[in-house]
Design brief:
This protein is an all-alpha fold. It contains 10 helices and no strands. The protein has one domain. The termini are far apart.
């Protein structure tokens, strides 16, 4: 029974905003009030440079990775593991500690994939890197990786609840990147 506490714990872990904490510790402006207003690694890079962005990226990935590894270590079944995955993701998007205004979820979803299966995480990051190398647009890379992730989950893990969870995550990522998609279609995305 106590295993079901893993999903709420994953949400709380996801609610810790790496971007806000990193910016505060490094004496930078609040990322919700500067640049794009998004508390994520890309905006932190605009505000504070590569080092701050790298720390933010690592923090966001870890808050996806750690709850999944904990659930797997406790031998959570596939449904509970899916709840943990989605809980951590929702925590990043709607953090209870920061007024329910979080990031877009790309780095956290990467950490989730890495926790589910090492090869899955490597395939997702490889997709991001390949698309970025070709197009040099971070949002296009993230969107492509997000769209392909459910297929990767199905082929590498073969688990229906996890696949459906990553379909939902991909749809949410697309919705969160609506303005990026509009700029991509208009040829104005940086």
């Amino acid at each position: 029974m106590f295993l079901w506490l893993l999903a709420p714990a994953a949400y709380l872990t996801g609610s810790v905003s790496s971007a806000i904490i990193v910016c505060k510790l490094m004496g930078l402006a609040d990322p919700r009030e500067q640049g794009s207003g998004n508390p994520g690694a890309t905006n932190v890079m605009r505000i504070g440079g590569k080092k701050a962005a790298a720390i933010t990226l690592a923090g966001d990935a870890l808050k996806g990775l750690i709850p999944v590894l904990a659930a797997k270590a406790l031998e959570a079944d596939s449904v509970l593991l899916s709840a943990v995955v989605f809980g951590a993701f929702l925590g990043h998007l709607y953090p209870v500690f920061f007024g329910f205004k979080g990031g877009k979820g790309v780095a956290t979803s990467f950490g989730l994939t890495l926790g589910v299966n090492l090869w899955l995480g490597l395939l997702v990051s490889g997709t991001w890197l390949l698309v970025y190398k070709i197009g040099r647009i971070s949002s296009l890379s993230a969107l492509t990786a997000a769209l392909l992730t459910p297929f990767y989950v199905w082929f590498l893990v073969g688990d229906k609840p996890l696949t459906l969870t990553f379909v939902l995550i991909s749809l949410v990522l697309l919705a969160r990147h609506r303005s990026n998609i509009e700029r991509l279609l208009a040829g104005r995305e940086r």
